[in-house]
Design goal:
The chain is an alpha/beta fold. It has one domain: 3-Layer(aba) Sandwich (Rossmann fold), CATH 3.40.50. The chain is built from nine helices and seven strands.
Length: 277
């Protein structure tokens, strides 16, 4: 049986951090005799092949016991993208006799910024295709190859807990991801599959640059991707449903339950319009 780790959106940011740290975790399992938890391969999935190849070399240099790194450069957005990755799972299972996914990290996604009426509708629908449709499909195609001991990590957001003015569709997508993840945690517990929702606030990645189409190069006061991912992986090993690293993120998620949803949307709409943000 071939055992693998799958990380989508692995070409940069938290996805690359997940790939590095899960590869090291697998090597640690192997060296400590926990061979069942160790993986034979790690699949790094994204569109930018050059970045994936660079990440592959970086991971291969991390030390002994690192799983083989397979570069999968493909567009996984929408139904067709999810089906294409699902076919790779099936083809690999047929070729190897059986396949077991130790860890699946659904990290691929992006956001957009601006008032919904003024944004590019096609771009908004592309976001739904990747952030929601693709994640749903990939999870569904992966589950037949997961079982007791498997871990599923979905990258949601602090935005999952409240509607966001100027990030209307992004917030809605992440609310969907969180709702799905919580429901899956309940359904999959009896199968021994641990499910975790990563719900970060601002993290220092390319997110702001992509969301603003280059207007903002970085997130101000963002936490490091490495620390955020390390916290999430630790929570995942423990079987925790939520990974909220910073105390202020925990407070924000709690406060969102007390403040009316329209008030949250109005406040974030006004706050996010400020030039300094």
């Amino acid at each position: 049986m071939k055992k693998i780790i799958v990380v989508t959106g692995a070409s940069s940011g938290m996805g690359a951090s997940f790939a590095r740290q899960l590869a090291e975790e697998s090597a640690g399992f192997l060296q400590s005799g926990k061979t069942q938890a160790a993986s034979d391969e790690i699949w790094i999935v994204a569109r930018r092949k050059d970045r994936l190849e660079a990440l592959k070399k970086e991971i291969e240099g991390l030390g002994e016991g690192i799983p083989f790194v397979r570069v999968i450069d493909m567009d996984i957005s929408g139904r067709d993208g999810a089906r294409a990755l699902g076919k790779l799972f099936s083809d690999e299972a047929s070729a190897e006799g059986s396949l077991f996914i130790n860890v699946l990290v659904n990290n691929a996604g992006f956001g957009t910024y601006g008032e919904f009426a003024e944004t590019d509708v096609e771009r908004e629908m592309e976001m739904v295709d990747l952030d929601c449709t693709s994640l749903t499909g990939i999870t569904g195609y992966a589950l037949p190859f997961m079982g007791k001991g498997s871990r599923l990590i979905n990258t949601a957001s602090l935005a999952s807990f409240l509607p966001l003015g100027n990030f209307a569709v992004y917030g809605a997508c992440k609310a969907y991801v969180l709702s799905l993840t919580v429901a899956l945690a309940a359904e999959l517990k009896q199968k021994g599959i641990r499910v975790t929702a990563l719900c970060p606030g601002p993290v220092s990645t390319e997110f702001a640059n992509v969301a603003s189409r280059g207007a903002r190069k970085e997130v101000k006061h963002g936490l490091s991707a490495e620390k955020t991912v390390a916290h999430c992986i630790k929570k995942s090993r423990r079987g925790s449903l939520y990974a909220l690293m910073a105390f202020k993120w925990k407070i924000a998620s709690w406060a969102s339950k007390l403040v009316p949803r329209y008030t949250c949307a109005w406040f974030t709409y006004k706050f996010n319009k400020r030039p300094s943000n």
